[in-house]
Every structure is written in C-alpha cells, then in structure tokens.
Amino acid sequence: MREPKPNSGELLQGTLDMLILKSLIRGPMHGYAVMEFIQQTSEDVLKVEEGALYPALHRLELRGLLASEWGVSENNRRAKYYSLTPAGREYLVEEAARWRRMAAAIARIMEPA
C-alpha cells in the first residue's frame, strides 16, 4: 500500500521560522504580509497556514528574535508589525548556513547512482 503524497506546499519541519525571518529581512511586516511574501516568492509552492504562522511569530518574539509594535495596515486596519532583532539576524545567518548544508547533503544522496 502506498503512503499518500504530502500536500503540495507543505513545509518541512523547522523551516517556517527561517522563512519568517528571511521575509522580515526586508523590513517590518504584519503577519498576513509575511504569509503573502512566502507564497508569492515561492511562486505559490509554499503556503503558510495562519494556524502555523501566528504561533511561530509569537514563539520567535518570545525567543528575542523578533520585536513587534502595533500599527495600521495598508487597508486601514490595526495590525501587529514584526521586525528582526540583531539576535534574529544572527540566527537567520546560522539557520541559512545549516539549511544549505542539509540541502546539499540531500541533493548528493538523491543523485543517480
């Protein structure tokens, strides 16, 4: 019996934090804008559910990797804007290097024998 295929756009475990931090390298954004950025930049391959995004933003803020402040969104609604802290920038550099090493290792394994 074959296992079902994972959903298209399903994120690998541990990548959401890195993608959020990378999104915010451009400057402060509210949560919905982070979701849109990830989806659009990945050409609709990656989709982030609100149920995963907002707990991740909160977790990153508690860890000191993000700071937040309330503001008004482009459609005139109150929104919480997140930005990278210096610790968040440092963590992103480390995680991006780890991700590149892992992706290269997987690519070597997946090469034809």
Model description:
The chain has one domain: Winged helix-like DNA-binding domain superfamily/Winged helix DNA-binding domain (Arc Repressor Mutant, subunit A), CATH 1.10.10. The chain contains four helices and three strands; from the N terminus they run αβααββα. Helix content is 52%, strand content 14%. A hairpin with a 5-residue loop joins strand 2 and strand 3. It is of the alpha+beta class and 113 residues long. The relative contact order is 0.16. It has a three-stranded antiparallel sheet.
Task: Give the second-level CATH assignment, the architecture.
Answer: Orthogonal Bundle
Computed structural class: alpha+beta
General form: globular
* CATH class wording: Mainly Alpha
Compact overview of the structure:
The chain has 113 residues and is an alpha+beta fold.
Q: Layout of SSEs?
A:
Blueprint: H1 15-24, E1 29-30, H2 31-41, H3 50-62, E2 66-72, E3 78-84, H4 86-110
Antiparallel strand pairs: 1-3, 2-3
Helix pairs in contact: 1-2, 1-4
